[in-house]
Design a protein that fits this description.
The complex is a heterodimer of chains A (348) and B (426). Chain A is α/β, with parallel strands linked by helices. Chain A folds into two domains: 23-109 and 284-341, D-Maltodextrin-Binding Protein, domain 2 (3-Layer(aba) Sandwich), CATH 3.40.190; 110-283, Periplasmic binding protein-like II (D-Maltodextrin-Binding Protein, domain 2), CATH 3.40.190.10. Chain A contains 16 helices and 13 strands. In chain A, strand 1, helix 2 (34-47) and strand 2 (54-56) form a beta-alpha-beta unit. In chain A, helix 5 crosses helix 7 (180-194) and helix 8 crosses helix 9. Chain B is mostly helical. Chain B has two domains: 59-185, no CATH class; 205-422, MetI-like fold. The relative contact order of chain B is 0.10. The chains are: A alpha/beta (348), B mainly alpha (426). At the A-B interface, helix 1, helix 2, strand 2 and helix 11 of A face helix 3, helix 10, helix 13 and strand 4 of B. Strand 2 (54-56) of chain A pairs antiparallel with strand 4 of chain B, so a sheet runs across the interface.
Chain lengths: 348, 426
């Protein structure tokens, strides 16, 4: 008797759990876009008659993978990304029947190198950043590809990197290799500094793999400390260790600017206006992607896009700016708003 | 080396001080070990308590709000759709303008002034009006939640000269305080709201309900299945190679990292059975898979601890094997089974890893009403808040940990009490 009862219960549970018609938008994707996407989702839920969308933080790559698995209620409607969708991902989407994707660029995020206000602000160049953190650095002037022998990074202090910098041991707390912030930092800051050497820049054409290895590999001798995915942890460690620098997203500096200061890079401070104007070199664009086929099937997607691209949301005075998003220029916003609300297809 | 001239008694007497010293050292090691463990525990609880206590109070600002019909419902139809999308923020702004008529003239100042009050003030007015449209046209005093930055200022987390407030803003706040328009009240929102991106509005109720539904599902599935499997294996199954294999597998499963169960759940429940993502029902099923081996092992141990004489006596008096088990062995083993189950549940309550895979690690504002509604769970809430940039989330994180710990303590205490009250010794 008991057994049949339990078997019936188990079966009942399984049937009840089968996906029913969905009336709620589902969003996946980048952890960098997560704070912005959730803020919009919450306002959307509280100011319209639609349900609050559910936002999962899966990382840009993971999000696009889920997004591209298919059409239908079991698959997410929108994915956030802290980089542009790649050609092979578009192809994967198309293979699974997702031909029409709407691309929306939402703004920028700056990656900052910050330290405690207890010490002086650092003024770095991208070249300094590369020389301080790369696994291998050029041995000599590195004028051309042939005359550019590499050696293991010997720099112990910032003074070794650049005579103008203080005589302080290099200690940088940053995200681990799995993080999107790390990817962007390596691509924008490390590679930017690496290219400053004519010899390495010439290598890019000759041997792309070797070039990437030189520019993208971070040293592992303790000067760069992987501090985990949690940016708050890095912020806390910086206040207790004034000699260290930390790498994290601009919104964390924005929230802690009474205890931390961002280093200037190539003479530009990581400030809201400088990143918005594109002067600050270590910044990246943020996106979200929506499935056209789901519009009309899942209620509210078009309205959600309209809410996100509203001036009061993503404009310079919008609430996302308060959360640390760097808005696009007026012209760029106008262009993306028109494309998004016209449900224009992604074109690579 | 013992002196050959010493008698055995002398040898023993000579060695006594050394043995006593060894004994004392051993005692000391034990006490030191417990002392260190206790010190860490106190440090942990102290640090979390110290940080989290602030989350239970919230700075509020008194506003005399006029629910102006021309703003909220210009057509006067009281249509719920109109009322739900009306501009309540404008009403709040107007209330602030009443207090500071000079400040609202310039757009920039108006923004700075409105930023002191949480956006939640508008949301809460909306709730009230939707519940009772008769409020429209009336003026009433409401205690609106202050913005998280203001809250942090009054709690002393941020300093006045931190540069996070302009001189003007500080002046306004001082005037509000002088007019007794600022108070620190018990933060009921923390227990009645779901998650939010605004720290002052973020609450734990959604995560608590999610954890509750997931744990109930877990209990309903894993307890009967686990107990029955254990009874069969312990009391009825023949001992052969197959049952040995089953036993080894169960012991192995108990040690499998929990994320693996999440992957299994993703493939089986979401992929194959097509169940909904983020549902606590699925979460409970995954946690049940994880808890099953623990319950089976504990139940078998409890059944095995019942002296065989009781079983033999029952069978000797003519009971069938099933009767002997149901009437005698099982009731005697129940306290042990209960204890094991509660400890298994407590472990499931703290699990985060398997929930990532099935989409329960998500930002979900609406409080779930049933096991099929999307939900997060308590450890998920801790994880999401710990990762948020706003400083005020630090105290929310600690407060969520306090709530989680409180649940764990209650569950473990129940286990201890059950064991104390019903345990029989032979």
């Amino acid at each position: 008797m008991k057994k049949t009862l339990i078997a019936a219960l188990f079966a009942g549970v399984a049937v009840a759990g089968a996906a029913e018609a969905r009336d709620q938008i589902r969003i996946v994707g980048s952890s960098t876009v997560f704070p912005f996407s959730t803020a919009v989702a919450e306002r959307f839920g509280k100011t319209t008659s639609f349900k609050t969308p559910i936002v999962e933080s899966t990382g840009s790559g993971g999000g696009l993978k889920l997004f591209c698995t298919g059409i239908g209620e079991g698959h997410p409607d929108i994915t956030n990304a802290s980089r542009r969708i790649k050609a092979n991902e578009v192809k994967k989407c198309a293979e699974n029947g997702i031909a029409d994707v709407i691309e929306v660029k939402i703004g920028y995020d700056g990656i900052v190198l910050a330290n405690s206000r207890a010490t002086d602000r650092m003024s770095l160049t991208l070249k300094d950043v590369f020389l301080a953190l790369a696994h291998e650095v050029p041995d000599g002037a590195c004028g051309s590809a042939d005359a550019c022998p590499m050696k293991a990074n010997p720099n112990k202090t910032w003074k070794d990197v650049n005579a103008d910098l203080p005589d302080v041991r290099i200690e940088v707390l940053g995200p681990p290799a799995t993080s999107g912030t790390r990817d962007a930092f390596v691509e924008l800051a490390m590679e930017g500094g690496c290219k400053a050497f004519a010899g390495i820049a010439a290598m890019k054409k000759a041997d792309k793999k070797a070039y990437k290895k030189v520019c993208h590999t971070i040293r592992e001798d303790g000067a760069y400390i992987e501090a985990g995915e949690n940016d708050n942890l890095i912020v806390q460690k910086l206040t207790t260790n004034p000699r260290a620098l930390g790498i994290f997203g601009f919104s964390f500096l924005d929230q802690n600017d009474d205890t931390l200061q961002g280093s200037t890079i190539n003479g530009v401070a990581p400030e809201f206006e400088e990143i918005a104007d594109g002067n600050y070199p270590v910044s990246r664009a943020l996106f979200f992607y929506a499935k056209k086929a789901h519009i009309g099937e899942v209620p509210g997607i078009a309205e959600f896009i309209a809410e996100f691209t509203n001036e009061a949301t993503w404009g310079p005075d919008g609430y996302l700016a308060d959360k640390g998003l760097i808005p696009m220029s007026d012209a760029e916003r106008e262009e993306w708003r028109a494309a998004a609300n016209g449900l224009q297809n992604l074109s690579m | 080396m013992t002196d050959p001239r010493q008698s055995p008694t002398e040898t023993i007497l000579a060695s006594l001080p050394r043995r006593r010293r060894a004994e004392a050292r051993f005692h000391f090691y034990g006490i030191a070990a417990i002392g260190i463990a206790l010190a860490f525990l106190i440090l942990l609880i102290g640090a979390i308590g110290h940080q989290g206590i602030g989350a239970f109070s919230q700075t509020e600002i008194a506003l005399d709000v006029t629910l102006d019909e021309s703003v909220l419902d210009p057509s006067g139809t009281r249509d719920p759709e109109t009322l739900s999308t009306a501009n309540y923020r404008a009403v709040v702004r107007a209330a602030l303008g009443e207090i500071f008529p000079d400040a609202v003239r310039k757009r920039r100042d108006r923004r700075k002034l409105t930023a002191l009050v949480s956006v939640g003030a508008g949301f809460e007015l909306r709730e009230q009006v939707l519940e009772n449209p008769g409020l429209i046209g009336r003026t009433m005093r409401v205690w609106a939640p202050a913005d998280d930055e203001v809250d942090m200022l009054f709690k002393g987390v941020t300093a006045r000269d931190s540069g996070r407030f302009t001189e003007k803003q500080l002046g306004w706040l001082d005037r509000l305080e002088a007019e007794d328009r600022i108070r620190s009240a018990f933060n009921w929102r923390f227990f009645s709201n779901g998650d939010s991106r605004e720290p002052e509005l973020a609450g734990i109720l959604g995560a608590m309900s999610g954890s509750f539904f997931a744990l109930m599902t877990c209990l309903v599935l894993s307890f009967p299945l686990g107990v029955m499997a254990a009874i069969y294996l312990e009391e009825f199954a023949p001992r052969n190679r197959w049952t040995d294999l089953v036993e080894i597998n169960i012991n192995n499963l108990a040690a499998v990292p929990s994320i693996v169960f999440g992957l299994l759940g993703l493939a089986a429940f979401l992929g194959f059975m097509g169940m909904a993502r983020s549902a606590p029902l699925v979460g409970g099923m995954v946690l049940a898979l994880m808890t099953l081996p623990t319950i089976i092992i504990v139940t078998r141990a409890s059944l095995g601890a019942v002296p065989p004489s009781i079983r033999e006596a029952a069978i000797g008096l003519g009971a069938s094997r099933m009767q002997a088990m149901l009437h005698h062995t099982l009731p005697l083993a129940t306290p042990g089974i209960m204890t094991g189950t509660i400890i298994g549940m407590a472990r499931a309550l703290g699990e985060l890893a398997p929930l990532i895979m099935i989409g329960m690690v998500a930002f979900i504002v609406d409080v779930p009403q049933g096991p099929l509604d999307p939900a997060s769970a308590l450890p998920v809430q801790v994880y999401i808040w710990a990762d948020s940039p706003e400083r005020a989330f630090a105290e929310k994180t600690a407060a969520a940990i306090i709530v989680l710990l409180a649940f764990l303590v209650v569950m473990n205490l129940t286990a201890v009490i059950l064991r104390r009250r019903f345990e029989r010794r032979w």
